[in-house]
């Protein structure tokens, strides 16, 4: 008996997905048993130490047992695939029935348990107005036609569901021919196998029709979306689909056409096209999950050719007002990375192989062409975020979602990827014409340049996904410390060892990071530096193992490793990322938290210990405020000035970066919060660092901020007022020393 309207709207379909997961898990366990049997039982039996009739007989049975485990795995996975297909299909059908019902209800209909509609005049009046209700009261024919229309819409959706349900029943009842492997009459690995392949080819046929300019029916597009969602975790489906599309080249052309339709040719159905494209990305991830398969190896070889091939894409080739480049084409890797950015769960091998292949195509030292990705026009910004104009930076952005991989990919001890991206690579991919007669390159960097690099450095140096919530202060792994240490040195001096490298005796990180091409890198780098606050504060105050001058390399000590850049380099990088003022507030707040943490640890001992710690706090406070003197903080001062009676805390001002602040205890937090209002005035009243005379000028606001800082610490931690005064006095005396440090770093250039 066909399912009824009432059956459909009340169906709980989640059990289908639960069952699919159970069958899939069973298949995985059978696979584990097969591997264990092959590795430990058959391997021992097949060795040369056992011979004779028993050995020969066992080998036959051993082969059968291995195949039986394999057939059990395949059957379980086949049933799981059928269940997922049923879940995806019936879920979509149910949504369509509910949508038809909701449309009827919105029109003022009552819908009974058979899906029949009856007009409710009171509801019509409420939703459509009394005038419309009176019209239907006076016109029985119009009323009947409206009821019939909405009833027919519901019944049409119900009929589609009944047909889908019957088709699924046929699939479940099918008894495919035994594979001939394993025990006779035993498990059948062909269950679901033919259906999965058939569904992949049906989806491919629809996608090829879209790609080739045809217009599949809404039902065909709907079916393609359902099938892809149902099988997006099935490697067999995904591989068959990609092969049916024509391999790597066909996949890229299909993605490009879906992008054209979504953003140019058929914007009204953008959601449908993007859904299909997202499923393509999922299929790619699933198809390439095992890098040892023939499919993976073949696809990689296909991409090496297709990656540098030219393709049409309307996002870059269509004429737009004020933008050159009509008719220009993109390269295959730009298309591939654009597709991959719509998905996730890619294997380490696919990400690294793709990133390396892109680098090989562009790196001149490897025989590549640095201008290969050049396009007329800057394709950064929200309007073009669906297109990866710079595929290498796009791959770094994808890699940043996997912090452990980002660490390995950028570790200077393992490869030169970090130095290449920071120093050697050409980021000028906005084509501005031919090389000038004097040999100069007129091309420009995109406004979105280095976004992926910044995110990868953040992930690789912290071990966390970009923008993750802050954690307690701590040190870092050896590789993480190497990445951050190397980044700061190269940005400042253009050499991995910093000033010791001898390439330049003048640090330039603050100027470099101010450039437009580094804008997207600044905030990820600032968040990463906040994670290294203990190392930075210790270096500024002289507590670091290498002292204030720093060392060419980080201090390597397992998970207690730390950066050892010079304090001048650190201050210049801090100034550079602080071109975006929120980044400066983030670093200042993080430093304040760490300094108060240290005060809590060291400040309750002798007077000498208290004076030593507070002198270092004052020096660090002065140095960071000295950096702030070169930044326009008036916006934040205005915020505090408008409500002088209202306490303003650092995390109020930092906004979206507040969640990334390191976590501290209550005493530390209260003490840090206490000085924010006064500190903003102190930072804003710092004299500009443009002459030696100005640096010697006093700053009464800073003295008051420090006084409040230590007074509140004393009160919060149970110390005497006198101890707070001692701390404040010692810190104030060291404050000018820190300011001078910043002056020397940003003006004298050492």
Quick rundown:
This is AG2 protein. With 750 residues, this protein is mostly helical. The protein contains 33 helices and four strands.
CATH class bucket of the domain at 5-173: Mainly Alpha
Question: What structural category characterises the helix and strand content?
Answer: mainly alpha
Shape type: globular
N-C termini distance: 86 Å
Q: What is the CATH-assigned architecture of the domain at 5-173? A: Up-down Bundle
Q: Mean of the pLDDT scores? A: 86
Low-confidence stretches: 639-653, 687-696
Percentage of residues assigned to helices: 55-70%
Describe the main β-sheet briefly: 2 strands, antiparallel
CATH topology (fold) name of the domain at 5-173 = Ferritin
Strand order of the largest sheet: 1-2
How many beta-strand runs? 4
Biased composition (Low complexity): 542-554
Protein name: AG2 protein
Region (Disordered): 429-448, 541-561, 708-750
Biased composition (Basic and acidic residues): 719-728
